[in-house]
Amino acid sequence: MRRRGFVKALAAIPAAPALMAQQTAPAQAPAAPSVRPPSEELPVLTPSVPDAAGEMTPKFFTPVQLSTLRRVSDLLMPALNGTPGALDAKAAEFLDFLIGESPADRQRVYKDGLDALNAQSVQQFKKPFAELEAPHSDVLLAALRKPWTFEEPSDSVATFLRMAKQDVRTATVNSREYSATATTGGGRRFGGGGLYWYPLD
Fold first, then answer.
1. CA atoms in the 13 A half-sphere facing the CB of 189
2. From CA 112, how far away is CA 114, in angstroms rounded?
């Protein structure tokens, strides 16, 4: 036997009995599962509705500005024929988030327009805009009835209303509430869904 083969055989001798012992050892029975004492049992968690647990807190607009925007939104996009309107869709609350993340010039249009609209309401009708009923509110929204032009309005209220009209509509028709109604086959229809309001599940 050559030296290399002899060394290999010699190295294998101590390991042989250990391997044989492992093969001949009787299999041990599995350990019995441990039982938790009643005091250590895991609690049962009751899931909650996500929308009910995650109400949004407005952060950008002041309370007066937000209440004015809610009233404007309701007038621009009211509930109709069983279809949710801007108030049902919480369009104003969504715009509070959207405008808060928008460029400074867009933020200024909203804030200046809301403040000017409310100031005009108090001056003419001795009430904040959020408390006005038609036809008083229609008087202050007269800019919406003017023909559209490429030129930007010079009045801060008219500039705001032009921008808000599109934003409120888009926020409403892309809301979870509006989508749920649309799938049941009722109400009005608008194109361009999914622009920037889409529910996260």
1. 5
2. 6
Cβ 114 vs Cβ 65: under 8 Å: yes
Taking every pair of Cα atoms in the chain, the longest distance, rounded to a whole number of angstroms, is: 117
| pTM attached to this predicted model | 0.64
- Coil, strand or helix at 140: helix
Give the structural domain span for 67: 56-182
CB of 181 within 8 A of CB of 84? yes
- Inside any domain, residue 70: yes
Q: Could you tell me if residue 153 is inside a domain?
A: yes
Mean pLDDT by 10 residues, the chain (201 residues): 50 51 54 55 57 65 96 94 91 95 96 97 96 92 86 89 95 89 56 40 39
Task: Count, in order, helices (H) and strands (E) of the chain.
Answer: 9, 0
Structural tokens at position 92:
């104003």
Residue 38, domain member (yes or no)? no
Structure tokens at 99: 């405008």
Q: How far is CA 112 from CA 107, 109, 157, 160, 183, in A?
A: 8, 5, 8, 8, 38
- Domains of the chain: total: 1
Residue 117 covered by a domain: yes
